[in-house]
């Protein structure tokens, strides 16, 4: 294992923000990951898990404890089964499944970060979520002191949520296993209207796998959601806020507020969620509350390509970013009575 002290963490995140860690350990095997976790737990040392860094907001003071960077590698495709080490680059893994002619994650192309983070957040985009294809997650259970394999059901997946996110101090993901589909080179049925439109087909249709992946990559790039060191619109964590899921009563109150603020002809986005709930669009809320693309005058601003991304224009601090996020949350709450929830994990800071 590689070990550094007073190590900068900002370069390990897509925001490029945050102070140093007291100690940074890089683990290249599952055994090294488990050994580092056990050492920290035995000594009562705070532990921060770092994968691809695409979902972290680290405070300017950094992290007092051990930051464990998971750099494990390994992938295996056998038939329609895929297994990934936690440290595998997710976008590369998606490309491999497309090359192998397997459907199920092709619309998750271009999402930054590591494979081990995908079940934690139940990563999803363009009509797909990893929970639809994950069969098993192998993780180190810090409470039990052993490596366990959790079935899909045991992962308790929900919208941008899971058992791992609900109990972040308990599990460290080591491997993720998927069951994909051999559809003769075609994608899974397209569920996202924007993707279907871009491909010139209807929702529910299938298209060649490579076409689906390439189209999603183009759509994401147009919104600044594909990493590019030269493009500050991609110095972000992607979507900073989750789409609100409201009870029927709360949605009715929100709907009335929209009519009051925007006029009788205004209709907010509405998508069926769990029974008695409706999901609406965080991007729509942000835009209609007056926080349009490029909003801000400081070093942290809303992306010029997508209102849901908060960005570091190159010289921001974490506090600059948080000030912008708090302004957006307060403005949306005042305008529509809906409180936005951050999607990235906050380390040493909060909204």
> Distance between termini?
35 Å
Q: Describe the largest sheet.
A: 5 strands, antiparallel
Shape: globular
- The Rg value, from CA coordinates, equals 20 Å
What's the average pLDDT? 97
Question: How would you portray this structure in words?
Answer:
The chain is of the alpha+beta class and 351 residues long. The protein has helices spanning 30-42, 90-99, 118-121, 163-166, 193-199, 209-222, 248-262, 282-288, 318-336; strands at 2-8, 20-27, 47-50, 56-58, 63-70, 75-78, 81-85, 102-103, 124-125, 128-129, 134-141, 146-151, 171-179, 181-182, 245-247, 271-272, 277-279, 300-302, 310-312, 345-347. The strands form seven sheets. Strands 6-7-13-11-12 form a five-stranded antiparallel sheet. Strands 1-2-5-3 form a four-stranded mixed sheet, with helices on one face. It has a three-stranded antiparallel sheet with strand order 15-17-16. A hairpin with a 4-residue loop joins strand 16 (271-272) and strand 17. The protein is globular. The model has no long low-confidence stretch (mean pLDDT 97).
Layout: helices, strands, pairs:
Layout: E1 2-8, E2 20-27, H1 30-42, E3 47-50, E4 56-58, E5 63-70, E6 75-78, E7 81-85, H2 90-99, E8 102-103, H3 118-121, E9 124-125, E10 128-129, E11 134-141, E12 146-151, H4 163-166, E13 171-179, E14 181-182, H5 193-199, H6 209-222, E15 245-247, H7 248-262, E16 271-272, E17 277-279, H8 282-288, E18 300-302, E19 310-312, H9 318-336, E20 345-347
Parallel strand pairs: 2-5, 3-5, 4-20
Antiparallel strand pairs: 1-2, 6-7, 7-13, 8-14, 9-10, 11-12, 11-13, 15-17, 16-17, 18-19
């Amino acid at each position: 294992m590689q070990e550094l002290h007073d190590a900068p963490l900002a370069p390990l995140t897509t925001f490029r923000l945050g102070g140093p860690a007291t100690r940074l350990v890089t683990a290249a095997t599952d055994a090294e990951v488990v050994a580092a976790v056990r050492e920290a737990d035995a000594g009562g040392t705070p532990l921060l898990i770092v994968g691809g860094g695409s979902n972290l907001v680290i405070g300017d003071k950094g992290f007092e404890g051990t930051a464990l960077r998971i750099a494990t590698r390994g992938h295996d495709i056998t038939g329609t089964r895929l297994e990934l080490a936690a440290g595998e680059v997710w976008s590369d893994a998606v490309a491999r499944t497309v090359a192998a002619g397997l459907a199920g994650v092709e619309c998750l192309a271009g999402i930054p970060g590591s494979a081990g983070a995908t079940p934690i957040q139940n990563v999803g985009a363009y009509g797909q979520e990893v929970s639809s294809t994950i069969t098993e997650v192998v993780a180190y259970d810090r409470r039990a002191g052993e490596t366990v394999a959790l079935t899909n059901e045991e992962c308790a997946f929900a919208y941008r949520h899971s058992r791992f996110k609900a109990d972040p101090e308990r599990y460290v993901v080591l491997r993720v296993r998927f069951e994909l589909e051999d559809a003769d080179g075609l994608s899974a049925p397209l569920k996202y209207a924007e993707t279907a439109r871009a491909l010139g087909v209807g929702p529910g249709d299938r298209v060649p796998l490579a076409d689906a992946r390439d189209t999603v990559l183009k759509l994401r790039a147009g919104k600044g959601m594909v990493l590019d060191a030269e493009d500050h619109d991609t110095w972000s964590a992607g979507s900073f806020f989750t789409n609100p899921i409201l009870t029927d009563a709360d949605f009715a109150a929100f709907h009335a507020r929209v009519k009051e603020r925007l006029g009788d002809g205004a209709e907010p986005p509405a998508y069926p969620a769990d029974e008695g709930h409706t999901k609406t669009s965080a991007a729509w809320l942000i835009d209609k509350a007056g926080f349009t693309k490029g909003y801000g005058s400081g070093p942290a601003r809303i992306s010029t390509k997508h209102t849901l991304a908060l960005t570091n224009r190159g010289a921001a601090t974490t506090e600059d970013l948080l000030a912008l996020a708090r302004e957006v949350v307060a403005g949306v709450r005042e305008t529509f009575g809906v409180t936005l929830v951050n999607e990235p994990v906050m380390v040493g800071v909060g909204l």
